[in-house]
Amino acid sequence: MIEQCANIWGKVKSQNPLVHCITNYVTVNDVANTILASGASPAMVEHPAEAFDFANIAGSLYLNLGTLTGEQEEAMIEAVKGANYKSVPLIIDPVACGVIPRKVEVINKISANGKISVIKGNAAEIKSLAGVEAQAKGVDSLDTGEDLDEVCKELAIKKGIVVAATGPIDVIADDKKMAYISNGTNLFGTITGAGCMVGGLVAACIAVNPDDVFIATATAICAFNIAGERAIKIAGRNPGTFRVIFYDLLYNLKSNDIMREAQIKWV
Ligand SMILES: Nc1ncnc2c1ncn2[C@@H]1O[C@H](COP(=O)(O)OP(=O)(O)O)[C@@H](O)[C@H]1O
Ligand SMILES: Cc1ncsc1CCOP(=O)(O)O
Ligand SMILES: [Mg+2]
Predict the structure, then answer these.
(1) Which residue, of 47, 123, 160, 236, has the greatest Cβ tally within 10 A?
(2) Nearest to 98 by CA among 64, 70, 135
(3) Residues in a beta bridge with 120
(4) What dotted CATH number matches 1-266?
(5) Of the ligands numbered here, which is closest to the C-alpha atom of 26?
(6) Cβ atoms within 10 A of the Cβ of 91, count?
(7) Which residue(s) pair with 42 in the sheet?
(8) Is-contact 143 125, C-beta < 8 A?
(9) Helical ranges in the chain per DSSP H
(10) To test the ligand 2 pocket, which listed residue (95, 102, 128) has its Cβ within 8 A of the most ligand atoms?
(11) How many whole angstroms separate alpha carbon 151 and alpha carbon 145?
(12) At residue 164, what are phi and psi to the nearest 5 degrees?
């Protein structure tokens, strides 16, 4: 499995996929820089009149619901139709879906207009989507992550998608497999947008491996977290420095580094 992850990381760099993003305005630049650092090409295209045609030519589509304006909502539906027309894989980050009911309504609308490949959120967001009680504060999870693997598995089976819940241990599930990733650092909690950024990276990886989005999702989260582990060794507990060093180390992360440093349990 880990060889496949290394291979997917190499393919992002060699294939330079185009990643269509409609994402929140808090962290849009961070998402673009993360995708660029991986070797893929981000494009933020979010006018309703542009989204269908652009999703058609993209390698993947990333929809992040963080600051969901009315215009973004319209554009997302157009983009989903465009992506569906060309079987472009789609990932959703359901930011704050447990505390803002409108987000769930929009996810349902998206789902009615096309095929979702991956939903990636923090533990509270994923539990809420699964109808399980969870602790959240706005966009942040306060959840302990108890039974998170069962929740992910059930949601993955129910919706026929890959589900990824991030946190100290990331859990990824499809209808048959699970992965637990223990790479990472809690310093990600000190910068806004770590979740949005890793979502962009998932979009880059599923673009080059659309036939197995489970392993592509694991690759992205693992690579992101290894770069974070390496960054804290240089930056120390300094969020601003960490953020800058992180991009350098993500950009320089090699497939061999993933082979050596990944801490993934496959079940
Ligand atoms: N305590 C932690 N230890 C290790 N990695 C973490 C920790 N908290 C978050 N991460 C990592 O930071 C990224 C963002 O996750 P998370 O904080 O759950 O998302 P969000 O920012 O959407 O709330 C993920 O790659 C996750 O693995
Ligand atoms: C602060 C904030 N408010 C709306 S979206 C957003 C960014 C959330 O970023 P992340 O989910 O990656 O922590
Ligand atoms: Mg988030």
Answers:
(1) 123
(2) 135
(3) 164
(4) 3.40.1190.20
(5) 2
(6) 32
(7) 19
(8) no
(9) 2-15, 28-38, 48-57, 70-85, 101-113, 123-129, 148-159, 194-208, 213-235, 239-252, 255-261
(10) 95
(11) 10
(12) -125, 125
Q: Which helix (H) or strand (E) holds 115?
A: none
Measure the CA–CA gap between 5 and 18, rounded to whole angstroms: 20
- C-alpha angle with apex 185: 183 to 191, nearest 5 degrees? 135
Question: Which residues make beta-bridge pairs with 66?
Answer: none
Closest by CA position to 214, among listed 245, 176, 167, 243: 176
Closest CA to 154 of 117, 116, 118, 127: 127
The pLDDT value given to residue 76: 98
Substitution site in 22, 27, 33 for ligand 2 pocket (most atoms within 8 Å of beta carbon): 27
DSSP letter for each residue of 1-20: -HHHHHHHHHHHHHH--EEE
Indicate whether this complex's ipTM tops 0.95.
yes
What is the model's pTM? 0.98
Contact (Cβ atoms closer than 8 angstroms) between residue 58 and residue 83: yes
> Which atom of ligand 2 is closest in space to residue 193's alpha carbon?
12
Nearest to 10 by CA among 229, 223, 203: 223
> Which residues lie closer than 8 Å to 16 by C-beta, 6 or more apart?
39, 40, 41
CB contact at 8 A, 130 and 151: yes
Distance between CA 24 and CA 149 in Å, rounded? 28
Residue with tokens 């069962």: 150
Position 165: which residue type?
Answer: A
Cα–Cα dist 57/156, whole Å = 27
